[in-house]
Amino acid sequence: MYKVYGDYRSGNCYKIKLMLELLGIEYQWVAMDILKGDTQSEAFLAKNPNGKIPVLELDDGTCLWESNAILNFLADGTAFLPSEPRLRTQVLQWQFFEQYSHEPYVAVARFIQLYQGLPAERQKEYEECHVRGYKAFKVMEQQLTRTPYLVGEHYSIADITLYAYTHVADEGGFDLSPYPAIRAWLARVASQPRHVPMLG
After folding, report:
1. C-alpha distances in Å from residue 52, one per residue of 37, 39, 142, 149, 185
2. If residue 3 lies in a helix (H) or strand (E), which one and from where to where?
3. What is the per-residue pLDDT for 60?
4. CA-wise closest residue to 72 among 52, 92, 86
5. Which residues 6+ apart lie within 8 Å of 184 measured at CB?
6. Which domains are delineated in the chain?
7. 35 pLDDT above the threshold of 90
8. CB 106 within 8 A of CB 136
9. Is the model's pTM score more than 0.90?
10. I want to staple 181 with a disulfide (CB 3.0 to 4.6 A). Which of 47, 136, 145, 190 is the partner?
């Protein structure tokens, strides 16, 4: 059975939980508390020397890390990852976008607000995250006004990747009311068979 080392409140960890649930794969969840230093223990660093969650441990003890890489592993050969090269590349395109233009701002603002309680010394960074986060939402909105999912007509790991932190963006102080296409997409994703909420 797979083991997932993660924090239920983490969007990156939620990606893996959601993917496993959608695929109907059994797994064991190993709760980690990053604020208590769980990811810096010698035992955990043996699994991921980068000291970050999530980590997916396979039956043979192999450990995979980086959430979007794990998604590609789990989705390979399924309907959640297109086999056609152009579409598969577009999935990767959105995953790279999430890691470079979305997650560093939307997730960080959420961390500052939800986990740290908006400390004064991070207020400027929090505001800068909002500027860049809203820019990312504009990019998503443009695509989602044209297609129901980020890569055309079909739900894929591109959607899972960006749903994870977008659907809890309000916990980072973001207002999605000006983005109707994103809000409709969030509802479509949540209505998928076998969908589970972050804390469900």
Report:
1. 10, 6, 32, 29, 29
2. strand 2-6
3. 97
4. 92
5. 144
6. 2-75 (3.40.30.10), 85-190 (1.20.1050.10)
7. no
8. yes
9. yes
10. 145
